[in-house]
Specification:
alpha/beta, TIM Barrel, 8-stranded parallel beta barrel, 10 helices, binds 1,3-dihydroxyacetonephosphate
């Protein structure tokens, strides 16, 4: 079964490094879908230098156009020929105060410009310690998706990224991953009548990728740190 292997580069890599890595990834023969999320400013160069992998932006504006200094619209992203956009990453929620109201607008903007979406959700450590994770993730997903036209659900992939596992080296256990993925698949089926694909993200690396990718209800991975080097990302792609 082909999986989705996505790399979120965050605010890393020079133009030259990005170009070299993208070209190398583009040459990999794989049945899996590979998606790379480089910084905005490299999008054009990355889409022009690749044909086999998909390229996406790490964020988009909640508005179509206008006086929003520093923002980049979904319309502009679509013009770079990027085909995906990441929305709701926990770093955007934490450092840039993104809330559901603006995430709904961003999802609508992305869909209006025919972009595919990877929508991220996940609980923090305190919420998990209190046993609130299932309610938190359900709310994060449903509060946004219930506002979206069901005709567009097939353009949306979900990504479960427990905040305590991001960049910490502490990966969630397969039991924890399976429990949340199964829960969200069931909740979406019941409330939205759609089964979404769900990626796992959070300290995914070559040593744990096979196990994560073989976990029930895991449709792929969203990789941060380990996507910045060819060798580690290549190993993850070949882990299944
Ligand atoms: P790490 O793989 O570095 O933990 O990052 C995960 C992530 O945030 C991907 O979006």
């Amino acid at each position: 079964m082909p999986k989705i292997i996505a790399g979120n580069w965050k605010m890393n890599l020079s133009l030259e490094e990005s170009h070299t890595l993208c070209k190398a990834l583009d040459a990999i023969k794989s049945t899996h879908e590979i998606i790379i999320f480089p910084p905005f400013v490299w999008l054009n160069q990355m889409t022009n230098s690749t044909k086999n992998i998909a390229i996406g932006a790490q964020n988009c504006a909640a508005f179509d156009n206008g006086a929003y200094t520093g923002e980049v619209s979904a319309k502009m992203i679509a013009q770079t020929k990027a085909s995906y956009v990441l929305i709701g990453h926990s770093e955007r929620r934490k450092y840039f105060n993104e809330k559901n109201a603006s995430l709904i607008l961003k999802v609508k903007q992305a869909l209006a410009h025919n972009l595919n979406i990877v929508f991220c959700f996940g609980e923090d450590l305190e919420q998990r310690k209190k046993g609130e994770e299932k309610n938190i993730v359900k709310e994060q997903v449903l509060d946004v998706l219930k506002d979206i036209d069901p005709q567009n659900y097939n353009k949306i992939i979900l990504a479960y990224e427990p905040i305590w596992a991001i960049g910490t080296g502490q990966t969630a256990t397969v039991e924890q991953i399976e429990a949340i993925h199964t829960h969200i698949k069931n909740v979406c089926k019941e409330d939205l009548n759609h089964v979404f694909k769900i990626l796992y993200g959070g300290s995914c690396k070559p040593s744990n990728a096979t196990q994560i990718l073989s976990t029930k209800n895991v449709d792929g991975v969203l990789v941060g740190g380990a996507s910045l080097q060819y060798d580690s990302f290549h190993s993850i792609i070949h882990a299944v």
